[in-house]
Each structure stands twice: as structure tokens, then as C-alpha cells.
Amino acid sequence: MIHYFLKSRDGDVDLNSDQVMIKIDSLNKSFGRIRALENLNLEIKKGELLGLIGPNGAGKTTAIRIICCILQPSSGEVTVGGYSIHHDQIKIKSMIGYLPEEPNLYERFKARDLLKYFGELYGVPKNEINGRIDELLELVGMSHRADDRINTFSKGLRQRIGIARALIHDPEVIIFDEPTMGLDPATSRAIRNFIKELKGDKTVILCTHYMDEADLLCDRVAILNQGKIHDLGTPEYLKEKIHGDIILQVRVHNPQKIDDAQLLAVDSVESVNLEGNQFMISLRSREDISQIIDLFGPEAISVNTKEPTLDDVFIQTTQ
Fold first, then answer.
1. What is the DSSP string of 258-279?
2. Each residue's pLDDT tens digit, 71-92
3. 146 and 179 within one domain
4. Among 251, 292, 259, which Cα is nearest to 275's?
5. Cut 0.85: pTM above it
6. Helix axes 111-121, 126-139, angle to 10 degrees
7. Residue 221: enclosing H or E segment and its boundaries?
8. What is the pLDDT of residue 10?
9. How are strands ordered across the β-sheet holding 49-53?
10. Is the dihedral of CA 278, 279, 285, 288 positive or negative?
11. Mean pLDDT by 10 residues, the chain (319 residues)
12. d(CA 48, CA 59)
């Protein structure tokens, strides 16, 4: 298989690199009295997979549509590969592949014909276009449906064709807006695996409501709320910022027989809370877990550990 689209992968992106692909500077957007974006600033490195998460109405889609030159900002600047959204819209559009949450596909087209139409629209050389189409159909698992009409496809299959359409001109930047929303688990996994394959070769922005998806795929995650970025960092960094790195959950027969003071005396214990017959012990590290369990002795029924997730980060940051 000839890899037109995955031709220069070199492992994880260097987040300390000075190669900035997308720069958002003091970006503002209002719709009447509603401030959708407020002084938004963000740099996305070349080859980075950045997750953009936030509640409904946070401004994610507005920001994406401005980057794609679909919307004009009220003020501020965005550059893509050094090109300005105010002066170089045609160039920027040629550099970006965009998959909206609901891709608008021409339903009477056959899959192959749709990709050929958009390839010609983007100026893909005639001697390359058929090879690109064949590779993309294989890449998204749709070779066997190449000559079927779009209106016969399920939502998941349309999403796959939408991805192929976004990639037909071999863009440097790919933007996915809720690519797995409403899809069955098998199709969601296939699309996530495909997005993961793009890491390091393409610059990718992933908008998602699924925190496990962002945690699994993204180099960094930006949490957007009320038009502003409230936090930014690697998934690990964001999770570490939550008070108490690890929660040890110990269910017991009789909580009255457990001495809280002994638990609090352990070096790594930050706090102890009792919920029914279950102790919730916040720990700075795992090193004292065996010692803590020994303190419960035969009273312990079950022991589990719970580490912070991006769901926890999201709730804490956006409340």
C-alpha cells in the first residue's frame, strides 16, 4: 500500500519545538450580545494532536470555523503555517482538511465519484487522483463500498467517507469535530485508530465530548469554557493537578473499628473520608498502599484504586 498520507512519521511530536503550525492571537467573536470567544490565545505545534474539549456552547466549533476561514472573527488573528486568515484564505483552505460533526455529503454520488469530485476541486493532479482515492478508501475501510451511493450508507460509513474527503488533497492540518459522536463502539474504535495513525505526520485538532478519547489520542488538551481557555497541557499534567493523585477505596465490615488517626499518620495519605462503609483515602503516591491495607486487617472486604481521569479534570475546571 502506497502511503501518500502517512509518509513522514517520526514518533511523538516534540512539544518543545518552535515549529508552530497554528497560532491564535487575541481572538474574539461575538454574535450580537453573545461573546462566543473572548481573547483566545493558543499555539499548536507542527505534528501535534491537540484536543479541544468543553461544554456545549463553549466556543469550540466557532474557533474551528474561524481557523477554517468559514467565519470571520470580530477581532484578533489566526495564522496557519504562517498564513493569515485575513489575507490568505484560499491558501489556508488548501492546507486544511475539515470533518464537521455532520459531514454534508452529496447523497446521490457514489463514494469514489464523490472523492474524485473533491479531489478535482482541490486541484489534485490527474495522474495522482485515482491512486489517492484507492488508498483512502482502503485506509478508512471502504474499498468494498467504493461504487455504492452515499445515500445507502449508515452514519458510521458516511463518517468514514467524510474522513476520506477531508484527506483527499493531502492537507497539512486536519480538524475533526466530534468524529465518533453517535457511532457504535466498533466504528468509533476504527476511527480513533485511524486518527491515532495521523499523529506526528499531520497537525490534528480533535474536538470531542468523550474524555477517554481525548486522553487516549491527544498530545495536549485545551479546556475551553465560555469562550476562554481555562487550562492547557498534556492529559497526564492535567490529571496530576487534581488534588490527591490516587484514591484508595476500602470497603469494610464495621467502620467503627477503623482508627482514622492511624490512616492519617501514613506519609502519603492526604485525607480520609467515610462514605457508608467505604473509606475514600486520598494518596500522593502508591508507595504506602500495602501499609494502609494492613491497618484495616480482617475488616477489609474489598480494595480498589481510582486515579483521576480527564472527566474529573473537565468537571472541576468547568464548574
1. S-HHHHHTSTTEEEEEEETTEE
2. 999 999 999 999 999 999 999 9
3. yes
4. 251
5. no
6. 130
7. strand 220-225
8. 47
9. 96-99, 173-177, 203-207, 49-53, 220-225, 228-233
10. negative
11. 45 68 98 96 96 94 96 98 97 96 90 96 94 93 96 92 94 94 88 89 94 95 96 92 78 95 94 93 89 95 89 86
12. 21
Which of 209, 240, 271 lies at the terminal end of a domain, its last residue? 240
Are 225 and 297 in the same domain?
no
Residue 148 lies in a domain: yes
Please enumerate, as own/partner, the contacts of 100-103 that have beta carbons within 8 Å and a separation of 24 or more.
100/162, 100/177, 101/61, 101/177, 101/178, 101/181, 103/158, 103/159, 103/161, 103/162, 103/165
**Domain containing residue 283:** 246-307
Q: What is the CATH number of the domain that holds 252?
A: 3.30.70.260
Measure the CA–CA gap between 165 and 180, rounded to whole angstroms: 16
Grid cell listed for 301: 472486604
Distance CA 50, CA 207 (A): 9
